[in-house]
Design brief:
Layout (H helix, E strand, L loop, with lengths): L2 E5 L2 E3 L5 E8 L2 E12 L6 E7 L4 E3 L7 E6 L4 E6 L8 E13 L2 E8 L3 E5 L2
Parallel strand pairs: 2-11
Antiparallel strand pairs: 1-3, 3-8, 4-5, 4-9, 5-6, 7-8, 9-10, 9-11
Length: 123
C-alpha cells in the first residue's frame, strides 16, 4: 500500500516562510519524479515545482526565485521551501509522485496524490 503524505502547511504573514514536506512510503522501488501543485479557491490546480530522480527542477514563473524544491532520495521525501510568501500563494498544496513500484517480482508505474495541506498567507 503506497502512501503520499504532506505536512508543514499553516498560516504565515506576507513576506514569511514555510517549508512543506512530502513523504512517499510503501512498496516503492524508485521515484521517477515528485512535485508540488496548488489549488486556490475557485481556480484550477496548477503546477508549482517538480524534481526528477536525476535532480532536474522546474518551477512555475510566479514562484521562481522564492520557492526551492529539493529531495532526500533515501527517505523518498520531497521538500518545498517557500520564502517571501505573498497573499496570492494562498492555496491547498498537493504533492504528486510518479513511482516505480514492485510487487511479486513485477514492476509497474503509478501516479499518486497526497491529501493536500493548506497554506494561508495573511496579515
Amino acid at each position: 500500500q503506497v502512501q503520499v503524505v504532506e505536512s508543514g502547511g499553516g498560516l504565515v504573514q506576507p513576506g514569511g516562510s514555510l517549508r512543506l514536506s512530502c513523504a512517499a512510503s510503501g512498496n516503492i522501488l524508485s521515484i521517477i519524479a515528485m512535485g508540488w501543485y496548488r489549488q486556490a479557491p475557485g481556480k484550477r490546480r496548477e503546477l508549482v515545482a517538480t524534481i526528477t530522480k536525476g535532480g532536474s527542477t522546474n518551477y512555475t514563473d510566479s514562484v521562481k526565485g522564492r520557492f526551492t524544491i529539493s529531495r532526500d532520495s533515501a527517505k523518498n521525501t520531497v521538500y518545498l521551501q517557500m520564502n517571501i510568501l505573498k497573499s496570492e500563494d494562498t492555496a491547498v498544496y498537493y504533492c504528486n509522485a510518479d513511482l516505480i513500484l514492485t510487487e511479486r517480482d513485477n514492476l509497474y508505474t503509478e501516479n499518486y496524490w497526497g491529501q493536500g495541506t493548506q497554506v494561508t498567507v495573511s496579515s
